[in-house]
Write a structure and sequence with these properties.
Strand content: 5-15%
Structural class: alpha+beta
Order of helices and strands: EHEHHHEEEEHEHHEHEEHHH
Number of helices: 11
Strand order of the largest sheet: 6-5-4-3-7-10-9-8
Largest sheet: 8 strands, mixed
Helix content: 25-40%
Radius of gyration: 22 Å
């Protein structure tokens, strides 16, 4: 099995005076480890992988190169391929393939990011990644997202039935599938309970638009799904319907779910929405109101989002509605004692 290199491994190597040349050429380097290497201005080490399941991996080619001599590409799966779930040997081969092992390691790394940022508590939160036309990797139930191991991951079909994995799948997989079955671009979903964004969900308030340009480009329009019991088909349907046109969905009285074209992309959006909600909350307490950059600039940001290949449900919306704050109202600021 290929070695997985984490941020902790990089720190240990640096403390011991080891060079990164000691890392095996076919090692899986987690996103946190790559972040650490970039922050220390260390040379990046590529990951090696097969381009599609069933084909020889780049690590098996001489020098870890592709046939044309180019550097090997990161692990990817053919999400359009269909795996015969009635063939136990084929399922197990797929489940333990280098491509899926790399994704499992990345899911563990993303889970630890969520835990370290206080986006999940106890055994809360869950992660899914679409790995075939009919199969999804998901995190297990009753395990802290900060301490998962690749061997904990589960393989399920689009009805939520577990196909492989020793641990029991997360009970909220149906919520993720509710989005994936309706939105083919949703390659991965992340559900968590970041405090600031969850506070907006509890209040049933969507954060107001037209305040921070990065939020408009990378989040798009934030959605709000009505409350349904977590883990039920009803919740999957409620969230799935909203998730078709919104990559960030606040779930009433529950938390947040985001989706993207990779699990890291989905996690980034979780960071984006919590930072945005926190900023709006703080700004609303300053007493001077929230300054909007206006609908004209908003249209420019929507165009940038579309050029980046992301759909935007706001395209074509009348200007008078683009910066509508909706239900959001800044809390009144109490005057100093003795003054009115």
């Amino acid at each position: 099995m290929r070695k997985v290199i984490t941020a902790a491994d990089i720190e240990r190597m640096l403390r011991a005076g080891e060079t990164l040349e000691a890392i095996p050429a076919d090692a899986i380097i987690t996103p946190s480890a790559q972040d650490l290497m970039r922050s220390r201005k260390l040379p990046a080490r590529p990951t090696f992988a097969e381009p599609t399941v069933g084909k020889p991996s780049n690590a098996e080619r001489p020098g870890g190169k592709q046939a044309n001599g180019a550097a090997a590409a990161p692990h990817v799966c053919d999400c359009n391929a269909t795996i015969d779930v009635t063939n136990a040997a084929a399922v197990q081969k797929f489940f333990s393939s280098p491509a899926l092992e790399a994704i499992k390691a990345q899911m563990c790394d993303i889970g630890r990011r969520l835990w370290e940022k206080d986006y999940v508590d106890g055994n809360g939160g869950n992660i899914t990644v679409r790995v075939a036309a009919n199969l999804v990797l998901c995190t297990p139930t009753l395990i802290s997202k900060g301490f998962m191991k690749p061997c904990d991951m589960c393989l399920i079909d689009f009805d939520g039935k577990q196909i492989a994995g020793e641990k029991k799948r997360t009970s909220e997989a149906l919520t993720h599938l509710g989005i994936m079955k309706r939105q083919p671009k949703a390659r991965a979903c992340v559900h968590a309970h970041p405090v600031h964004a969850t506070a907006f969900a509890v209040a049933s308030v969507i954060p107001p638009p037209c305040l921070i340009p990065e939020a408009e480009v990378f989040l798009g329009k934030v959605g709000l799904a009505e409350y349904q019991t977590p883990g039920t088909i009803e919740n999957g349907n409620a969230v799935g319907i909203v998730g078709v046109d919104h990559q960030v969905v606040l779930m009433q009285n529950h938390g947040v779910i985001t989706w993207g074209d990779s699990v890291e992309d989905a996690e980034w959006k979780m960071e984006n929405i919590d930072a945005y909600c926190r900023t709006v909350w703080i700004a609303s307490q300053l007493g001077s109101g929230l300054h909007s950059f206006g609908t004209g600039k908003m249209k420019e940001l929507i165009a940038i989002r579309q050029r980046l290949g992301m759909d935007d449900v706001r395209a074509g919306t009348s200007e008078c509605k683009l910066c509508d704050p909706g239900e959001f109202r800044a809390a009144p600021v109490n005057p100093p004692a003795g003054k009115t």
